[in-house]
Amino acid sequence: MNKHHRVLLGVVAGAVMAALSSGAAAEPITLKLHHFLPPQSPAQVKMLAPWAKRVEKSSGGKVKIEIYPSMTLGGKPPQLINQVRDGVVDIVWTVNGYTANLFPRTEVFELPFVYTNNPSATNLAMRAMFNKYLKVEYKGVHVLFLHVHQGQGIQTVNKPVHSPDDLKGLKFRIGGFAGQVLTKLGVVPQQIAGGDIYPSLEKGTIDAAEWVVPFLDRRLGLQDAAKSYYTTGWHEPSTTAEITVNEKAWSSLPKDLQAMIAQAAAATSISRAAAPALRIGSQLARTVVEPPVAWMPNNGLA
Known about the structure:
It contains eleven helices and eleven strands. By secondary structure, it is of the alpha/beta class. It is globular.
């Protein structure tokens, strides 16, 4: 082999190695995130999608999060936590109360007198108390963040709620720890997916329901099926939710990428907690006025 051939071979070999190296570096780590709400829901538009973009940007494109809404990867919402534990998906966003008795410590933050309509304070409290008091509930997963939202109400079809006695016998769409507590007042808890609340109220298969906050209740059209709206909900002032990642998937990530994902999650948790109270108030006003719905403010029943 002459000198020119050796030089040419070296150039070709170098180019191939550079191409292979570049290709390997450009191949991102893709994580699948599964959740139960539609793609146009505020949870995806305002929280999950911005967080995924933060992760991709801060990691320099090394990590991509693909979002699968509306249970498109199969199963029902209560199965999400097992899907992420078993590695069926990499990440889930789900509501803790969908799986009864699994997160009793975390669900304490939904209860009256614990949650006081301050999502920022509650989110920070859960973060501060997580390692000592809550982590034991999350075996097999790594929690990126827990969060709550700003106060929710009760919609009733026919029977207004003026006192605890009015709850007796109500078939009430509510689950988790709050549902267990309300059974002591005679409520019959019903575990129903969000998308089934309106038809269940309309058909009379349930008497009452809680969902989230006024502007999200309106998106489901609950004001068209319910005659009374009670707020703020002393029954269950808020709902805890989690973004968790499969423990093995998390452990397989380089430490620098773990730090970037965690930092993006923390930023999202803080921005998520800054709930637009003015928007909630304006939507409550619309709920009362168009169409007319009886508004029953918290009058000290708790």
